[in-house]
């Protein structure tokens, strides 16, 4: 049977001698025997045990759980049960971490690298993000209104085809235009914007607002306070 000194075993398993000493102290891995010169000697049995410890540790098991499994000589059924519990716990942690990362990205998107706003402005940003549900409700209402306008035009076109007359389509088109104007006006009156540089909340003029480049949650506007052009964050007006 092959024998290993502490340093040789550590090198074989790519760990430090300090780690081996720690496992020894915690009664996780004892040497097969100790020579008169105090050299600790490990054999293939200890190598196998160490590999088991490292495998379980890589999967996230605590040293306490590993020690319990080894001392009680549990079989793979116990590992399966522990893994099942750990997977549930880790998935919850991952979900929480992903939620935090998403939130941090949202906050980051509302702050430019050169922003000189005072730190308490972070509270305003938090309030805006907390009220995000209001934004979602507004989008849903606008979507329904837009869908009704589209439906009117489709029905008008269908009737025109059946009747072989342009009149129903023209009427539907006019109704659709009215619906679009109301939709745009309602949307404009419902939102404000926050400059990511100075964090001023403002209402842009309607024409620059209509023709500004935009994303689903931002619009490229000139801040009336700092006069800088940025993708300003869209927020639901508190007065709406």
UniProtKB/TrEMBL annotation:
Domain (HTH merR-type): give its ranges: 1-72
**Keywords for this entry?**
DNA-binding, Membrane, Transmembrane, Transmembrane helix
From the record, give the transmembrane residue ranges. 142-160, 166-184
SUPFAM superfamilies per record: Putative DNA-binding domain
Show the Pfam families listed in the entry.
MerR_1
Tagged with keyword DNA-binding: yes
The protein's matches in InterPro entries, at most eight in alphabetical order, are given as:
DNA-bd_dom_put_sf, MerR-type_HTH_dom, MerR_fam
**Highest rank taxon of the organism:** Bacteria
Looking at the keywords, is DNA-binding present?
A: yes
Task: Enumerate the GO terms in the molecular function aspect.
Answer: DNA binding; DNA-binding transcription factor activity
For this entry, the protein name equals MerR family transcriptional regulator
